[in-house]
Write a structure and sequence with these properties.
The complex is a heterodimer of chains A (188) and B (320). Chain A contains 1 helix and 16 strands. Chain A has 188 residues and is mostly beta strands. Chain B has a single domain (10-139, 199-319), classed as Bira Bifunctional Protein, Domain 2 (BirA Bifunctional Protein, domain 2). The chains are: A mainly beta (188), B alpha+beta (320). Chains A and B meet through strand 3 and strand 5 of A and helix 6 of B.
Amino acid sequence: MANYSTNEFRSGLKVMLDNDPCSILENEFVKPGKGQAFNRVKLRNLKTGRVLDKTFKSGESLEGADVMDMDMQYLYSDGDFWCFMEPDTFEQHQAAESAVSDALIWLSEQDICVVTLYNGTPLSVTPPNHVELEIVETDPGLRGDTAQGGSKPARLATGAVVKVPLFLDQGDVVKVDTRTGEYQGRVK
Amino acid sequence: MSDWQPGASIHHLRRRAQVMSLVRNFFANQSVMEVDVPVLSRSGVTDLNIDGICATLAGAPAYLQTSPEYFMKRLLASGSGDIYCLGKAFRDGEIGNQHNPEFTLLEWYRCGWDEHQLMRELTDLVSQLMNRHGSSALRVTEISYADCFYDKLGLDPHQASLSDLWNLAAKIGSSSWTGETRANCLDLIFSLKVEPQLPEGLVFVYDYPECQAALAAITTAEQGYKVSRRFEGFLNGVEIANGYFELCDPVEQRARFDKDNIARQAAGKPIWDIDTKLLDAMRSGLPACAGVALGLDRLLMSDLEVKSIDQVMPFSWLRC
């Protein structure tokens, strides 16, 4: 991979730091008038999700990380691995539980997800921003209560539990924003 | 859409014009003469950490000045008396929220003054420029480099061993700092651990370490170690000014230029021809004086309470 100097650091650039792939979030140039210049850099470790603050001398460089985001279709899981397919080449990738753990509660077969590949292996999976899922368990609906506020927990087909309005029932399909876990609406 | 519009609002530009006019009035009242020295010169600067921008003039290198200092010192040596310059300076690679490669610098010299007298005049000027907010007076703090460094880090910056500085720098920086110069370690530690915690208002830090003298005279402090007669002004935590009781000795000046170029070479940077006209001027006699340079854009950022230099300039480099 290419090396990137501090002046090429941009938000979104993927670099290696202490043998882990990281994504640059912010890069601030600091320089005393007469003195050495520095870059204060905020990075997210893509393996652990942790955000790090590092200070580099301007002109220092980091190795680029072989990280790419790719749209793939979720096919199935055998319990140990989760299988994703590139829609144009039909090439399949096996993701370990560590890569899918955050996405699992939203994943339905055939969903198109963003799979982040590190050295060709799935590192993390981002579910679609919006998913439509069936309610499999909730308290009975209160008919005629559509106008009032109030909400109740509902378990969805994939295992996620979200707050939904009181009038919804088991068997209803709801639209949910996976980034916030918030109910967006009922799907007729 | 291209970025054809200015970064600063017209309201901010009006304030900028007003401040420039206030500066000129201030110095006219003090009988300090304005000089508009060139920005293009046959010589560059040798500072290790300041990179000039080199243009080409009739096939030969022509350097955009990183400050008006050398030209102004040649005028001082020619008997100009007190002078100021309000103009552009250029520094390669300096781009960020507080940096633009082309910026506006106010630099002035007072003959027969020392750096502490100049700090007081700088206080007067900044108070006048900032006083439109009316109510509260500008809070002013003066503290030595040693005191503010020790207060935050418990280490004496003048007497700490180089290995102590390496260890401290390694805790702050990303990688090993072993082998770095004393000045670079101090820059890192001061910029990241001391500067962000300076009090609000105008803060003068004086008696910089000997290794960071630049063009300031060096003296021996009461404690026995050497310090440079250099100060920096910080306004609400941001560096706005750098001043010296000026070095007048041409032999010492020549030695510093040579040392700079050795350091530039070691750092893999181009070495520049020394400005022999400045050395000739110093040989003929630079009067004892104090001088300071103030970043006008930074002052406006503080005055207008904005975070980016792009918001106080008609067109920052992003838009040029």
